[in-house]
Every structure is written in structure tokens, then in C-alpha cells.
Amino acid sequence: MEQNNQLLTVSPSPHLHSPVGTASIMGDVLIALTPALIWACYVFGMRALYLTLISVASCVLFELLYEKLLRKPVTVGDLSAAVTGVLIAFNLPVTVPIWLPVAGGFFAIVIAKQLFGGIGKNIVNPALAARVFLFSWPVDMTTFTTPVRDRFHSLFIKQDLDALATATPLSYLKEGKLPSEVQGGYQTIDLFIGNVPGVIGEVSALLLLIGFAYLCVRRVTTWHIPVAYIGTVALLTLVFAKGASVSFMLNELFAGGLFLGALFMANDYATSPVTPNGRVIYGIGCGLITVFLRYFGASAEGVSYAILIMNLLVYYIDRFTKPVRFGGKKHEKQ
Amino acid sequence: MDEYKNTRRSQIRRMPAPERVMIPLSQHIGAPCTPCVAPGDTVTRGQVIGRTEGLGCPVHSSVSGVVREIAERHDARGRAVQTVCIDNDGHNTLCPDLAPYEGLLCEADPDRMIELIREAGIVGMGGAGFPAYAKISSARGKAELLIVNCAECEPFITANHRLLLENPASVINGAKILLKALGVTRGVLAVEDNKLDAANKLEQLLDGDQLLRVRVLKTKYPQGDERQLIYVLTGKQLPVGKLPADAGCVIFNAETCASVYQAFAHGMPVVERTVTVDGDCIANPKNVLVPIGTPIRDLIEFCGGYRAQPKKLLNGGPMMGQALHDPDSPVTKTTSAVLAFSEKFSPAPKEDYRCIRCGKCVQACPMHLMPIYLSQYLRAGNLEACLQYGANSCIECGCCTYICPGRVPIVQHIRVAKGKLREQKMAAEAAARRSEKEGKNGAK
Ligand code: SF4
Ligand code: SF4
Q1: How far is CA B188 from CA B43, B142, B164, B219, B224, in A?
Q2: Residue B287 clears pLDDT 50, i.e. is over it
Q3: Range of the domain at A84
Q4: pTM here?
Q5: Residue B269 pLDDT > 60, yes or no?
Q6: Which pLDDT score, from 0 to 100, does residue B107 have?
């Protein structure tokens, strides 16, 4: 066959590449979040799905618009904006007005992500930044619904009479009461499975865990941050339990946004350390601050602020945990 | 990482010498040879055609015929080097000076052996091309362990694997000759566990030998890197900036050992080598025993030509090999593979790369560096930080770039950083020398 020299590409090694790219990783994250989303539709009604779709659409659109307006390469294909969209929706109560996720998407994508330089360059987790921003509308953000009993009516949950402001299990815990001790209360198993009031994505620790296990199997993420984070919270709430220690601890773990935060927000790539040791330190830090805020803070929840605070320290943790290079320091004397 | 050892069952085929060979006078690390033949001279197979006084060893003709010209040509690494072009007369007349080593190995004088290894033009055939005689002389007295590198960890390449299966005795005997020349009494043949058949063959042949043992290693790129090999075999991490001999080790590639054996048993210098020809564009991938100096174009023709138009042609493995721009560049002593890839297999690098801070590169780096920060600091122009983060320890294995989902050309960034650091250091040294001189002049 004729050999044409002109057509040969000369590029530096390596010449092989792993098939795993940013888009396939983000796709895996979306898959991992799906069980929790399906569950949310089951307990809160189809509105959970609508809100999620609106949130995803607005994140993707804002990213597209921003990049088009500034004539930057379009990156919506990497699916990271879609992941941010799902995570924003997961942090909303199902009763919020439709414009709220849109506002959240704008804040997350334009302010928290793109103004810092886009994917990988943002300092704080965009979805968490959006959540904190949306607390400017505290009433909307803290009106929780009890899980729907009559699932067939759940499509229009906003009109449902059940949709009243409800205290979350976490607020009982703050007062030192176990949710199961309160009238009509929730058992620990309800908390684990997710049969409790809360924001769309946080209620079912079990399904979030299944999603996370999938990510571990696909080697998208490592165990370090979640184990360090949840482990720290478990240890502290066991030692400083308000009441029966083990069940108090378990309730602290499964109530609120700890699992969503630890499994899917704290170990967001861009805003967590790159070294394994750094990830453990970061997870422990998140755990310490979370418990501190839950005990002494103004609100019942502490996960978002804990992660945001640790986000700011990531660069220093990375530098502090720089691995000893092969044949470095301790081997020099041999 | 997929291994792609497609040619593992393909027997080594000897390729007839082409009509013309082009033999570069620099196929090793060190000083290039000066030609000792002139255009029009008749040469024979195995005859010395270039020599050097410095570090380096002679280059021999791989065919018999007439020297047509001596000119500058691109070698497979893209460097312009003096190259001797020889028209093959097809007779394969052997050089009359070639003679096997006479005498008993146990009585051999190490200095003579080293001289013989130099004369045979033996260099590190795994790809480095460091002259074997120089390695032996510098390791003598320091090294206690000979490591024969049969890891062959790069994807696609199976040349050593086939050599170990088809002619294990040559590797073992070559290793024994090296033991004697080095004055070392212990050697291991390090084989990855994807070549258990070869390991078994070696075991059988060694049959409880006191000097040499087979060690089976986990298949894991870059297992064949010197530092990784020493670490898995001895548990020692070679300190930054030290050579294997400092850890009491000396490492030779399997094919280098076989060449040593050829030199002693038959008096044959390095005039041919085994090359794996593979890739999705090659019609009949196989392992070939190729005369040194064969144009890669002819070698590919021997393997049935192209199945599809290649986008990339590689000299060496896909992780560390060089992309060729000229298919007429010749096979040299360090060409372990020729691979032809289509776009599908080896996509062009992305201009628009983005780090997503996944940390996969940090976990993948066998030298325990932080490739992400090396790349970032280089792009920020902070060479000081590159140095601090160990840019100079990078072995350019490519693991970080292979794994990077953001398609950041990390290794290339590190190479640039290393180059700049080298320049900086040289400039600083030059300045120091100047000021020293001025200081002396001032004192007068
Ligand atoms: S090429 Fe990358 S992985 Fe390999 S040693 Fe260098 S920095 Fe580490
Ligand atoms: S592997 Fe690539 S994307 Fe991931 S941290 Fe390293 S450079 Fe960034």
C-alpha cells in the first residue's frame, strides 16, 4: 500500500490512553445518583423529578450561555453541569417554587464555577454554594413535607394537605430527643431507608450508599473521604451522645444530609484534596466541623458549611500531604 | 491498562536483509562513532564500520555489500545522525575476523571480556542504549546482584517473551557470562506473570542453578523500570539521583544478555535484533529478527504492509516510544517494536484539556510525585516549585497521562519543565565559572 509520510501524526508519548474521560466519569456519577432520585419520586412524588430536571436544564443552559457569550470552548458535554444540577435539586425540599432551582443553577454555574475558571478550578462546591445562597429564602428552604402516604396522589404534592411545615428528625436530635420518642416519630430504620421528611436527595442513606458503592466499583472515587467523614461523626456523636449513645449516634448519621454530603458532595473532585492522606484529613475535618455546628450552631444542620469551610483548605492540605517521592528522604541514607 | 500482547504466540521470523540498509553511527548513549569505511568500499557482514574513542561502542555492518554513501539522516528518534548506507550484494559474506571466544569461561580475564563486549557493539537493547561494557566496568566491585530484565511491561511488545521461549539458553548463558565479567555470584531473571510459560522454561533449564534464579513479578506497568525492579526484588528504594550500582544492583535486558552470548559463542556482533511489529494498521503483526539498519518501511512490507492507512507510527512501545515522522528511518539496536496505529487507537492529543482534580495521576505515579501540580506549576511558569515537587525524579513512564480523564498532556509538561531546569542549571554553572575566573583575575 502507498505510504504517505505527510499523514503521520507526531506527538509525545504516551500514545495509549485510558478510555475513561471526564464525561464518562460524570455519567457514572449521574447513574450513582439515580437510585436516590427514584426513591425521592416514590416518597415525595413526581415533583421531585420535575424539580431535578429543571435544575439540570438550568445548570446546563447557564453553562452553555456563559461559554457562548464569552466565546469559550463549550464544555457542557462533560456532564459536570448536569451533576451539579442534580445535586442542587437534591438539596431542596420538594415544595420549593420552580424558580428556586433556576436561581440556584445560576449561582452555582456562573458565580461559583465559571467565574473561577470553570471545571476543576472552582474553590467551593458549586451545588453547596447554591444551597447556601438559596437560604436567602429560608421559608421555602425549610418547609418539609412528610413522606406521602397515598402514593398515587403524589404527582401534585404542592396541593397536598400533607405538605405542611414539618420538623425534620435532625431538629429533634438537636434538642436531645430521639425522633422515635416523639409523637408519630420515625424509627432508625425509617431514617436509614429514607421514610422521613427532608430535602429531595438526602433522605435515603441506603440508596446513596448503593450509588456510592457503584462509584467505588467503577473506580471513580475512593473510600477515603466518606469513611473519614462519617467515621468522625460516628465517633464524636457516640462519645458526646445526648442520651442512649448508640441509637443517638445512628440517628445522627442517618438523619439530615450527612450521607449525601459525605458520599457525593465532600468528595467532589475539584474541591477535595488529591492525595489519599489529604482526603482522610479533609474528611476528618468535615466531620469535626459538622458535629460542632450540629451541637452549637444556630441551625440543626451542619454538613454544607462544614464542607464549604474544608473546601477552602484543600490547597493547603494538598501541600501538607505531598507524598514522599520514591527514593526520597527516608531512603536517602540506605 | 490493557496489555495488547497480540503477538505473544507469533514465532520470531527472520527477515531477509533488504536491498539497502542504513546504519546510524550513533545507536547508543555517548559519543557518536566516526566512520572507518568510505563510499565505494566493500564491506562484509559483521565488519566494523564506525568506531569511537569515547563512551560508546563500534557499529557493524549487518549485510555484505558496497558502501554507497555516508550522510546525515533522521534516525528513529527524529535526530539527524551520520548514517552509513550500504547496498546489499545478497551474498551475506561473513567478516573473516569474527571468531568465537576460545578458552574456558571460568579462567577468563574480566578485562578481556569487557573489551570483547565493547567490540561486539553491545548496548542496552531494552531501549536505553547505554553501552554494556561501560555499565559493567562501573558496576564492577559495587554490584552484588545481576538483574536480567525480562519484565517487558510495555503493552504490545512480545519480542523478549518470544526470545525467552524460543532461545532461553542464549539468555541464560549470556547472563552467566555477564556474572563472570561483573565478578558477581548472584543473578535473578525477573519475569512478569503474564509470561509464565517463559518463566517455566527458564526454571527447567536452570534446574536449581546456584547462580541464577527466576523471579516471577506481578504484571504491572512500569514494572520493567530499573527503580521499580530493584524495589520489588530487593525491597530497596533507590535514593533520588543514585544509580542501580549504588544499591548493589546491575540490570541488563534479556536481549542484551542474548547478544552477549552471540558475541562469545559465535563471535557475532550486534547486527540484528528482535522487533515486535504490531498495531491495528499492520496486516500481519509478528515478531521479526531484523538486520540493523533495515528501513522501517521494508520491515512493515515484510509484515504484509498496512491494513489501513496509519495515523501514527511508533518506534518502541505505546507508553514510552517515539512517534516517527519518516517511515524510512532505520531499525537500530534499541528498536524493540514498530507499531502502526489508526486514529481510532491512538487519538491525537486534545488542545482543549482540562484538569478536573480527580487525583488519579497522583495515585498512578510510580515515583510518588504529584503530576497534577507539576503540570500546573510549569504552566504557571514556576520552575522553582517544579523542582521542589520532584520534576527531576519523573521517569516519563506516562502513567499519569494515560489515566488522566481531563486529557492533560502531563508528561509533556514535565519534560518541558525538566528541560528548562537543565538549562537553568547549566546557565548557573556557567555564571559561577565566569565569576570564579573574574575573582581570580581580580586577585592578581
Ligand atoms: S510520567 Fe507521570 S506517572 Fe510517570 S513518573 Fe513522571 S509524573 Fe510520575
Ligand atoms: S489525572 Fe488529570 S484531571 Fe486528574 S488530577 Fe491529574 S491532571 Fe487533573
Answers
A1: 39, 17, 14, 17, 13
A2: yes
A3: 23-320
A4: 0.90
A5: yes
A6: 81
Q: Which residue of B has its CA nearest to A74?
A: B352
CB pairs under 8 A between A and B: 174
Question: Is A239 part of any domain?
Answer: yes
Q: In this structure, are residues B229 and B223 in contact, taking their beta carbons and an 8 Å threshold?
A: yes
**Rounded mean pLDDT, B349-373:** 93
- Residue A17 is assigned to a structural domain of this protein: no
Split into its structural domains, chain A has a count of: 1
Q: Which residue has the higher pLDDT, B421 or A4?
A: B421
pLDDT bracket for residue B346 (50, 70, 90): confident
Q: Which ligand is nearest to the CA of B397?
A: 1
All cell numbers assigned to A311:
473546601
Place of cell 436531645: A176
Q: If you take atom 3 of ligand 2, which residue's CA is the nearest one?
A: B355
State whether residue B382 sits within 8 Å of chain A by CB. Answer: no
User: Which of B355, B402, B411 shows the shortest C-beta gap to A18?
Assistant: B402
Would you say residue A138 lies in a domain? yes
Given a cut of 90, whether residue A246 has pLDDT beyond it is no
Query: Within an 8 Å CB–CB cutoff, is residue B372 touching chain A?
Result: yes
SS3 content of chain B, % helix, strand, coil (to 5): 35, 20, 45
pLDDT of res. B443: 55
Do the chains contact at A13 and B396, CB–CB below 8 Å?
A: yes
For chain B, the average pLDDT equals 92
Residues of chain B in contact with residue A223, where contact means CB-CB under 8 angstroms, are none
Beta bridge partner(s), residue B21: B86
Determine contact, residues B187/B145, Cβ cutoff 8 Å.
Answer: yes
DSSP string, B230-284: HHHHHSPPPPTT--GGGGTEEEEEHHHHHHHHHHHHH---S-EEEEEEESTTBSS
Residue A147 backbone phi and psi in degrees, to 5: -55, 140
Domains and their CATH numbers in chain B = 16-97+269-341 (no CATH), 105-266 (3.40.50.11540), 349-444 (no CATH)
pLDDT at B347: 79
Residue B355: its chain A contacts at CB < 8 A? 120
For residue A165, what pLDDT band results from cuts at 50, 70 and 90? low
Q: Which of B314, B339, B368, B369 to mutate to test the interface with A (most CBs of A within 10 A)?
A: B368
With an 8 Å Cβ cutoff, is A14 touching chain B?
A: yes
In a domain, A190, yes or no: yes
